[in-house]
Design brief:
- The complex is a heterodimer of chains A (176) and B (586).
- Chain A is an alpha+beta fold and 176 residues long.
- Chain A folds into 2 domains: 3-77; 89-175, Glutaredoxin, CATH 3.40.30.
- Chain A contains 8 helices and 4 strands, in the order H-H-H-H-H-E-H-H-E-E-E-H.
- Chain A has a 4-stranded mixed beta sheet, with helices on one face.
- Chain A starts with 8 loop residues before the first helix and ends with a helix.
- Chain B has 3 domains: 2-89, Ubiquitin-like (UB roll) (Roll), CATH 3.10.20; 126-203, Alpha-Beta Plaits, CATH 3.30.70.20; 208-560, 3-Layer(aba) Sandwich (Rossmann fold), CATH 3.40.50.
- Chain B has 20 helices and 17 strands.
- Chain B is globular, with a radius of gyration of 25 Å.
- In chain B, helix 8 (265-286) packs across helix 10 (321-329) and helix 8 packs across helix 15 (419-433).
- The longest helix of chain B is centred in the middle third of the chain and has 22 residues, at 265-286.
- Chain B starts with a strand and ends with a helix.
- Helices cover 34% and strands 14% of the residues of chain B.
- Chain B has 586 residues and is α/β, with parallel strands linked by helices.
- The chains are: A alpha+beta (176), B alpha/beta (586).
- Chain A binds chain B through residues 1-2, 4-5, 7, 12, 15-16, 18, 21, 25, 54-55, 57-59, 62, 67-73, 76-77, 83, and chain B through 151, 155, 161-168, 176-178, 184, 567-568, 570-576, 578-579, 583, 586.
Chain lengths: 176, 586
């Protein structure tokens, strides 16, 4: 049914031997049959995979004997779960009141342009995922942007390109 | 029993009652929306709020207790109910005039009951694509009021679990997982969700225009068949009591709509029984796969194809009566009537949304054409009758055309749970023993109990049978079968609660009481038939003599039998074990 089946058999066997799937099977086995197992299993599965792709959702549904519609319902209900792969760095643009009035929207707009993604999207090079956050508690630095653990205060749209390039260059150097 | 006060009135009710039930018992009406008796008590919509101890409580889930004081009509209650419904209306497309559920909509009715005269809140509106991918069911999430009745029926009654609630807050939407289109899911097309939807968010695919076009085309010969369960429910669309038998009026209405021949699915139900009883006896004799399971219900067939593909060998290879009829209507009938089969259009009137899918299955073309061209639900036929300006209630009775309109009581009872089993037993008994069956009524297999069992002695061997209706009950029976714990010879399964009389294409509302009345109509009809055993149907005897040869013969195999397709449960390929089972094909 559909494109998912058209993958070549080598990918299939690669995935089958992928140790992440073994970890998933272990997690499911630990919780199978217990009430309320779905959320902790989703949590740990996301730690293993970085996100919750469709095949992982199906394996969890089957393994815990929970309807797929419920698995999907829980994943989409809680914002901490994601079914999209995340970039290496998560960018958070604070849209709390202080940051908002100080021009966070313009910063966000510039990030969207530079990365070519919408909010919650991941850039084509797999490096950045763009998120919007609530107040991060650094209102004195408004507007605030975070990249991974790094915090950038008093952001201006003009500064965005340069900051992004820093991470891109670091990545290229690491590769070389 | 406990005694409580509702609006100053003293009421004594059983202690497991809710406030809603207690109010009903006292003759006090509390409006409800998400509440669905026997299925869904989520208390989520807040329309049924009442005042208890100065606080608002949902009557549908609040338990009664001794000395409780309930007020159902205070300014606070009226204001709260009205605001709740106004907020629903603020995110509801106000296109009632062109909605399929116009004048049969619970939200519309509530707005009237609560005396809502303006839509105060003009806020954001949801915009979702309409999912018309399924041949049976259309989903319009824009009309959905998030009552979750469809989710309850899909999971708790049918055990299919296709529909769920995704996202949260304003973004909440009822949909299959991953916002998948219905056609890409393991949806069985049973349509129980359509029956319980209070608004027009879930409806049947409307095929009435196709039928009007065929009727208007002078070059076509349009043949119609009517399923057993249609004649006991169609009257409801015109204000008659559920269970009223309107066969004669229905036939006249169909003639007036312009159908060239009006035939009866009861005829091909009799044929199904002759084939199926012979198949059962053959399996018993030759050590074939047992238990044999009936195959008349297309929702059930799609369910087993997705959920238990390894058990497909248990299914009878008999096509459903609709499809046997279609195959003969484009072979036997034109031969007998001197017609060109290419000009024949076959229409069915079914209590069922899944029949629309069944008619389109690629296997169902054994006449060389699509055997059944168009399938209408009871609701669609009623709309056509109304559109044509036919005064249904005052119509004179008509009679079916020969030969495919001749039938027995055994064909009629196909419409109720246990009916196929009972009809098969009537015939199998006489085929095996050669004796006349004295007691025709196998009451053990009748009624609304979820899984029914019976034993029948056939020439010294005891035949053990079981009957399940509703896919949740079917699943329980299949789990037993998979574990080798279902020691039966023959199992009947119908996808819908109550059987076809409770089908997803039936008039709305369809609830337990109405199902019961339709069942009574079916068995009353059977009692009044001159012939009540399928193998005694004279038209079936002639059909074998003139055309088919013998039951299970070569011609039967070509036209009346079919095969089944293992289907995936999910549309995604899996990397691990279980791949073989899931990756059958689609």
């Amino acid at each position: 049914m559909g494109a998912a089946n058209k993958q070549c058999c080598c990918c299939q066997s690669m995935r089958a031997s992928d140790e992440r799937y073994q970890k998933l099977a272990d997690i499911i086995a630990r919780y199978a049959g217990q009430p309320g197992a779905l959320i902790p299993v989703l949590h740990q599965a996301q730690e293993v995979f970085g996100y919750l792709p469709q095949d992982v959702q199906v394996l969890i549904a089957e393994g815990l004997d929970v309807p797929l519609s419920e698995v999907d319902g829980v994943i989409t209900f809680y914002s901490l779960f994601t079914s999209q792969p995340k970039g290496k760095y998560t960018i958070g643009v604070c849209m709390g009141t202080a940051c908002y009035v100080k021009g966070a929207a313009a910063v966000l707009e510039e990030l969207k342009q530079q990365l070519g993604v919408d909010v919650n999207g991941t850039s084509a090079d797999g490096l950045f995922t763009l998120n919007v956050t609530r107040c991060v508690g650094a209102c004195g630095l408004a507007p605030v942007m975070t990249i991974g653990e790094d915090v950038y205060g008093r952001m201006k749209p003009e500064a965005v390109r340069e900051i992004l390039d820093k991470y891109i260059q670091a990545e290229q150097q690491a590769k070389a | 029993m406990v005694t409580l006060k509702i609006d100053g009135q003293t009421v004594t009710v059983p202690d497991n009652y809710t406030v809603l039930q207690a109010a009903e018992a006292a003759g006090i009406h509390i409006p409800t929306l998400c509440y669905l008796k026997d299925v869904s008590q989520t208390g989520s919509c807040r329309v049924c709020v009442v005042e208890i101890g100065g606080r608002l409580q949902a009557a549908c889930v609040f338990p009664v207790s001794e000395g409780l004081e309930v007020k159902t009509n205070t300014p606070l209650v009226r204001e709260s109910r009205r605001t709740t419904v106004e907020l629903m209306l603020s995110n509801h497309p106000q296109d009632c005039l062109t909605c399929l559920r116009n004048q049969n909509c619970e939200l519309q009715k509530l707005a009237r009951e609560l005396n809502i005269r303006e839509i105060k809140y003009q806020g954001e509106r949801s915009h979702y694509p309409i999912d018309a991918s399924s041949p049976s069911i259309v989903r319009d999430p824009n009309k959905c009021i998030l009552c979750r009745r469809c989710i309850s029926v899909c999971s708790e009654i049918q055990g299919v679990n296709i529909l769920g609630a995704r996202e949260r807050g304003f973004e909440t939407v009822v949909s299959p997982a991953w916002q998948e289109q219905l056609v890409n899911t393991a949806c069985t097309n049973c349509g129980q969700c359509v029956l319980v939807c209070p608004v027009g968010a879930l409806t049947e695919q409307d095929d009435t225009d196709k039928v009007w076009a065929a009727l208007a085309d002078p070059d076509t010969h349009v043949v119609v068949q009517t399923a057993p369960a249609v004649r006991v429910s169609l009257g409801e669309e015109f204000g008659l009591e559920p269970g009223t038998i309107v066969t004669g009026k229905m036939i006249t209405a169909l003639r007036r709509l312009g159908f060239d021949a009006v035939f009866d699915t009861d005829f091909s139900a009799d044929l199904t029984i002759v084939e199926e009883a012979n198949e059962l006896l053959q399996r018993l004799k030759n050590g074939g796969r047992l238990p044999m399971i009936t195959s008349c219900s297309p929702g059930w067939i799609k369910f087993i194809e997705h959920q238990f593909p390894e058990l497909l060998g248990h299914l009878s290879t008999c096509k459903s009566p609709q499809q046997m009829f279609g195959a003969l209507a484009k072979t036997y009938y034109p031969k007998k009537a001197g017609l060109d089969p290419a000009r024949i259009v076959t229409v069915s009137v079914m209590p069922c949304t899944a029949k629309k899918f069944e008619a389109q299955r690629p296997e169902m073309r054994s006449s060389g054409y699509q055997d059944v061209d168009i399938v209408l639900t009871v609701r669609e036929l009623a709309r056509m009758i109304k559109e044509a300006g036919i005064d249904f209630v005052n119509l004179p009775d008509g009679e079916y055309d020969a030969p495919m309109g001749i039938s027995t009581g055994a064909g009629l009872i196909f419409g109720a749970t246990g009916g196929v089993m009972e009809a098969a037993l009537r015939t199998a008994y006489e085929l095996v023993t050669g004796r006349t069956l004295e007691r025709l009524d196998f009451t053990e297999v009748r009624g609304l109990e979820g899984i029914k069992e019976a034993s029948v002695e056939l020439n010294g061997t005891v035949l053990k049978v079981a009957v399940a209706h509703g896919l949740g009950n079917a699943r329980r029976l299949m789990e037993l079968l998979r574990q080798g714990k279902a020691e039966y010879h023959f199992i009947e399964i119908m996808a819908c609660p109550g059987g076809c009389i409770g089908g997803g294409g039936q008039p709305i509302p369809t609830n337990t009481e109405i199902r019961q009345k339709r069942i009574e109509g079916i068995y009353a009809g059977d009692r009044n038939m001159p012939l009540r055993k399928s193998h005694e149907n004279p038209a079936i005897k002639v059909l074998y003599e003139e055309f088919l040869g013998e039951p299970l013969g070569e011609m039967s195999h070509e036209l009346l039998h079919t095969s089944y397709t293992p289907r995936l449960k999910y549309k995604v390929a899996l990397p691990s074990q279980g791949q073989e089972r899931l990756a059958g094909n689609a």
